[in-house]
Amino acid sequence: MSVRRFIQDRKGASGAEFALLLPIVLLFLFGIIDAGRYAWEFNKAEKATQVGARHAVVTNLVASDLAAYSFAVQGGIPQGTVVPITAFGGISCSDSGGGASCACTDSTACAFGTTADDAAFGSLVERMRRIMPAVSRENVVITYSWSGLGYSGDPNGPDVHPLVNVQLQDMDYSPLTLFLFDVDVPLPSASYTLTLEDGTGTESDG
Questions:
Q1: Measured between alpha carbons, how far is residue 76 from residues 123, 146, 147, 153 in Å?
Q2: Furthest C-alpha separation in the chain
Q3: The TadE-like domain covers which part of the protein (predicted)?
Q4: How many CA atoms lie within 13 A of 85 on its CB side?
Q5: What pTM did the predictor assign?
Q6: Phi, psi of 9 (to 5 degrees)
Q7: Mapping DSSP to helix (H, G, I), strand (E, B) and coil, where does residue 12 land?
Q8: Rg of the chain over CA atoms, in angstroms?
Q9: Cα 90 from Cα 112, distance rounded (Å)
Q10: Nearest to 192 by CA among 176, 175, 169, 172
Q11: Shortest CA distance to 52 belongs to which of 156, 160, 153, 165?
Q12: pLDDT exceeding 70 applies to what percent of the chain?
């Protein structure tokens, strides 16, 4: 075959073009799938957080001292009056690997102990895992903050009915397009808040 005929030969051109375009087409296809999976995972994170908040307001308080503390007897606030924000700044509970622990979000307004109910925290996490199995205890933070509801010396439950916020954080998503590079993409934090209801029990129907 002459050099001219070799140069002008177009046999196999379609196969070569296909081989060049295939990686781009696959990357585009997997990118579309990844976008859908990312939205699905974020939606699961939000739903798990909503279910977790619902569970938290109708089951035992993780900040167990808050359930037993009397603002009338121990806090000196006249019985029957609304507990002021100056007496209850808020409590945040989480687990960094050594079991659930709680701490005041405002140290000047936390005269009582911050004992954590580890079983209640574990129950909350397990409820969230029914929606999103990848959730771990380290991903969950629950915060009790002042709402203006509740009365000092309430004989039927906690003196305060705080706003209960459940936050899901530090969750990752593993995209197909970056699988070979072992790279994860962080999911945005999800957060949901409800007002405490009875704060007693171990199961919820939410």
A1: 34, 18, 20, 10
A2: 106
A3: 12-54
A4: 7
A5: 0.82
A6: -70, 120
A7: coil
A8: 27
A9: 11
A10: 169
A11: 165
A12: 84
